[in-house]
Write a structure and sequence with these properties.
Helix 2 (35-57) crosses helix 3 (61-84). The chain has helices at 5-19, 35-57, 61-84. It is built from three helices and no strands. The radius of gyration is 27 Å and the shape is elongated. It has a domain at 35-85. By secondary structure, it is mainly α.
Amino acid sequence: MGARPEKIAPGIAARAAASRSLTRPAPYRAQPPSFEDQEAMMTIQQHIDELQAELSWNDDPAEIRQIETELQAALAELERQRQED
């Protein structure tokens, strides 16, 4: 003869309720950043590093101009983010 579920559940619920404070609200816990947010936070510096690496070995003038343009935009974005902080 096992214990009946209706006898177990109220005890568990009572212990869970007793462990929480009734006078203070639970502390606010922000959602952890999503994968996309984490990726966006790291991307600027990584993108700059990758662009600089591409410039070091690339010998195609058209690609070099494109990479330099992207690099300048990424550096400007990094500077903007640093000024916000």
